[in-house]
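Run log // design_07
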């Protein structure tokens, strides 16, 4: 770098010096010549005037003698001609007899009575000659002075100039070296600073406070570096906070890049896998679970969150995996250990199933004895009324335990559904057939609308249970409308079944919670009509287990419609998928 600056500076100096030297040489030479020639001319004019005076007045010496003396005194050649141009006397050699001197410009002026001056290259000596001619009586006299003397005195000037240039060049060399050295030192500091910053050493500074351009650049770079340092500090701080937060989480978190290589993993994740999730390692090498990997890939490729249940990450543990896409093509996965939750859930389900099971026999017995007593006891006092209450409540409790047992079975995923191709009309007819009598007794028309007329994959007994719960509800709560429609219509890869009544409907605020266990819009009415609050929850679990969805639409005083979907025969879900769906809900 130093050499470059040095060479640039030196070249610039040399060019400036050369230009100045040439300009000086040219202008000084011109000025010198002009002044020198002016002096000579003035001098020669005086001498010519003196010579003219002497020629006109000196009667003692002959013309040749005067001319020779004057030429000697002036250091020039002297010539005298008559008015016709014939040479009368010449200080040097015999003039050319043929030449008409009167025609020469200086002589022609002198013959006209003026002082004539002319510079031209002399034909004999070959150098510029200054001619001054003056009028004399009967002719003209001329002094000729070769100007070569003036030229010969200029090399001294050139020598002086060359000396000056030489000294200036030496000074330029020294100056370039000094400036280059100073600039090099400062620029080198800036280059070192840039290297430090590139290497992540953000505390590096230039500390050049001089007011020139390099100094200003240094100050600005220092300022930028300190801003950068502050930003990095803040960034590192928030990253540390985030890391602490993620490390304190119970859930395992792992982030992968677009090549599915580990970017980061929290301590829960590292505890899960045998080897630490080192950055750069392929996710497949450390987490050998196809469902987990599939969730990550799908969220990366589809740019949307994906979920999965992973059971091969840690023996005996099931994880709920939620993978979310990251900007740049990667994904972050959160793994929640469901083992404990599932264990608690299973204990709860088992407990309910056991209690229900244990209550079954005593309740049947109470029911039986109450019915026997009702037949045997005469209608005296309130005894029959009390017995009727006992029977009714025992029946309700028995229904409740039955529903609880069904729900526990469906929820646990242990219930194996016998999924077979079945036509929509079979399902609809079966649903209506069982309730035809009751409907007629309540003056309600039960209508079938089969717009699908296709086959679905379903366990017909389970679907019948769904229809039974929905039609029973329609009869219980919507009978006042006088019409219940049970239908099916195509919905893409599914068939959508519906049970519509024209009763009082359900206020919209209840719709989102309708399928929860024991959720009832009107508790008293439900109880009175023998409802357990579990019918819709059971229906929901059965439909989910088939890979369908269930929902309700209703408007107050405009009836209620319950919809559920079942897959068409060709789109039957895998059995393992069914089991996992049941377990998840
Ligand atoms: P229940 O045994 O009480 O009928 P469900 O789970 O079957 O329990 O129904 C939950 C609640 O939803 C019912 O208590 C009732 O308030 C409301 N419901 C269900 N079906 C209808 C319907 N067709 N019209 C009005 N309300 C309904």
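design_07 sequence
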């Amino acid at each position: 770098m130093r050499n470059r600056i040095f060479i640039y500076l030196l070249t610039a100096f040399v060019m400036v010096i050369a230009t100045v030297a040439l300009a000086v040489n040219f202008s000084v030479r011109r000025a010198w010549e002009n002044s020198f020639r002016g002096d000579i001319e003035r001098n020669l004019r005086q001498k010519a005037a003196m010579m003219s005076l002497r020629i006109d007045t000196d009667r003692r010496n002959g013309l040749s003698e005067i001319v020779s003396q004057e030429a000697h005194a002036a250091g020039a050649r002297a010539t005298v001609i008559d008015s016709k141009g014939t040479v009368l006397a010449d200080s040097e050699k015999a003039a050319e007899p043929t030449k008409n001197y009167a025609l020469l410009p200086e002589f022609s002026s002198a013959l006209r009575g003026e002082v004539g001056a002319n510079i031209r290259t002399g034909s004999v000596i070959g150098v510029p000659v200054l001619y001054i001619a003056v009028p004399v009586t009967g002719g003209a006299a001329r002094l000729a002075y070769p100007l070569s003397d003036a030229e010969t005195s200029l090399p001294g000037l050139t020598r002086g100039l060359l000396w000056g240039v030489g000294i200036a060049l030496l000074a330029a060399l020294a100056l370039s070296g000094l400036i280059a050295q100073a600039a090099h030192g400062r620029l080198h500091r800036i280059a070192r600073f840039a290297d430090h910053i590139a290497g992540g050493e953000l505390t590096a500074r230039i500390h050049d406070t001089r007011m020139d351009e390099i100094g200003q650049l240094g100050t600005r770079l220092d300022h930028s570096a300190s801003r950068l340092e502050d930003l990095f500090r803040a960034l590192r701080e928030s990253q540390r906070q985030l890391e602490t937060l993620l490390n304190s989480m119970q859930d395992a978190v792992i982030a992968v890049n677009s090549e599915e290589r580990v970017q980061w993993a929290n301590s829960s994740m590292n505890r899960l896998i045998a080897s630490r999730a080192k950055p750069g390692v392929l996710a497949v090498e450390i987490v050998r679970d196809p469902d987990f990997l599939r969730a990550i890939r799908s969220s990366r490729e589809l740019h949307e969150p994906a979920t999965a249940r992973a059971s091969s990450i840690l023996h005996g543990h099931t994880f709920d995996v939620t993978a979310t896409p990251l900007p740049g093509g990667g994904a972050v996965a959160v793994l929640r250990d469901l083992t404990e939750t599932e264990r608690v859930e299973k204990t709860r389900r088992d407990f309910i199933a056991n209690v229900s099971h244990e209550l079954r026999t005593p309740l049947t017995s109470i029911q039986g004895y109450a019915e026997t007593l009702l037949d045997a006891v005469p209608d005296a006092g309130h005894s029959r009324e009390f017995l009727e209450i006992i029977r009714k409540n025992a029946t309700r409790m028995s229904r409740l335990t039955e529903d609880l047992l069904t729900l526990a079975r469906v929820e646990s995923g242990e219930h194996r559904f016998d999924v077979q191709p079945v036509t929509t009309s079979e399902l609809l007819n079966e649903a209506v057939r069982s309730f035809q009598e009751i409907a007629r007794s309540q003056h309600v028309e039960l209508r079938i609308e089969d717009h699908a007329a296709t086959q679905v994959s379903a366990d017909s007994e389970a679907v019948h249970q769904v229809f039974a719960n929905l039609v029973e509800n329609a009869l219980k709560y919507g009978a006042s409308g006088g019409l219940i429609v049970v239908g099916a219509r195509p919905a893409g890869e599914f068939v959508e079944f519906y049970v519509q009544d024209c009763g009082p409907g359900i206020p919209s605020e209840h719709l989102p919670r309708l399928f929860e266990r024991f959720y009832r819009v009107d508790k008293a009415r439900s109880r009175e009509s023998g409802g357990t609050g579990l019918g819709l929850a059971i229906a929901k679990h059965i439909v989910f287990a088939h890979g369908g969805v269930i929902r309700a639409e209703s408007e107050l005083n405009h009836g209620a419609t319950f919809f559920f979907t079942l897959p068409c025969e060709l789109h039957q879900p895998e059995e393992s998928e069914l089991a996992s769906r049941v377990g998840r809900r």
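Residues 469, 473-474, 477-478, 501, 503, 506, 514, 519-522, 526, 531-537, 560 surround adenosine-5'-diphosphate (CB under 6 Å).
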